[in-house]
Amino acid sequence: MPNLNTRIKDFYDASTPLWLNTWGEQMHHGYYGANGELEVDHKQAQVDMIEQLLKWGRAPKAVTSFLDSGCGVGGSSRYLALKYPEAKGLGVTLSPVQAANGQRYNQEAGVGDRLEIRAQDVYSLDPDEDGPFDIIWSMESAEHMADKRALMKLFHKMLRPGGQLLMATWCHREEPPALSEDDKQVLQKICDLYHLPPLVSVPVLAEAASMVGFKEIAMEDWSKAVEPFWGAVIRSGLDPRNWPGLIRAGKSTIKGAWAMKYMKEGFRTGAIRYGVLRATKPMQ
User: Fold this and answer.
1) Which residues of 108-136 are buried (b: 16+ CB within 10 A; e: fewer)?
2) What's the pLDDT tens digit per position in 67-99?
3) Domain that holds residue 56
4) Tell me, what CATH number does 174's domain have?
5) How many independent structural domains does the chain possess?
6) Where are the alpha helices (DSSP H) in 57-171?
7) Which residues, 6 or more positions from 132, have their beta carbon under 8 angstroms from its beta carbon?
């Protein structure tokens, strides 16, 4: 079997054109209010998610550089580049298809001179050559990365003193109580179909951040705020107009679409959670 990075790359190379055609350039959950109570356009909810994470994450008002780790086609990257017109940004994704689309979108958005999107493993970034950054943005990508402590260590190295890490990621629920066998089965299905290493809880991420030197660490569970998104994604998957694109995308994408029912089940039972984390690199 191909290694994890190859499977992730192949999955997003195949599925990205379908997602772009159906949903557009923001490849992440929407935000529907703290309790999922807001009835808003789903694409607007995806933009609201970016703003909510910036607000909750206490992002600095002045930003000169940022990293979008696991950037997809760079939807968040372009939003940040437009929000911070003096900033230069770097986005990295394992998928050459996503990187090529992202670079094209950068030119169309007028930020191609300030924002680069590369097909590159985030673990291979060089803090001396690629950094430092005021913000590291990690929107629904850390779940794909197996070594959480190594990831946090890299992020810490790549931030300027006083820089901020802002992360939103899929997790399993906090323990104790221990995950049940049913919980484990649902989580395993999600990991297998979406090419994820074993999921962890947000406190595990916070502990990894603390161990490498981050301070002012905060975390929250936003599961209720994002849960309505899965109903919309499932409805789009059931729309016959999207079936030809799903078939063209191939077996891996079809399996990924099948995983949506496990995501819905995981949110219903609480086995899967949507966690956010912020952390600061100390000035000294």
Assistant:
1) ebebeebbbbbbbebeebeeeebbbbbbb
2) 999 999 999 999 999 999 999 999 999 999 999
3) 4-280
4) 3.40.50.150
5) 1
6) 75-83, 96-109, 127-130, 148-158
7) 65, 158, 159, 160, 163
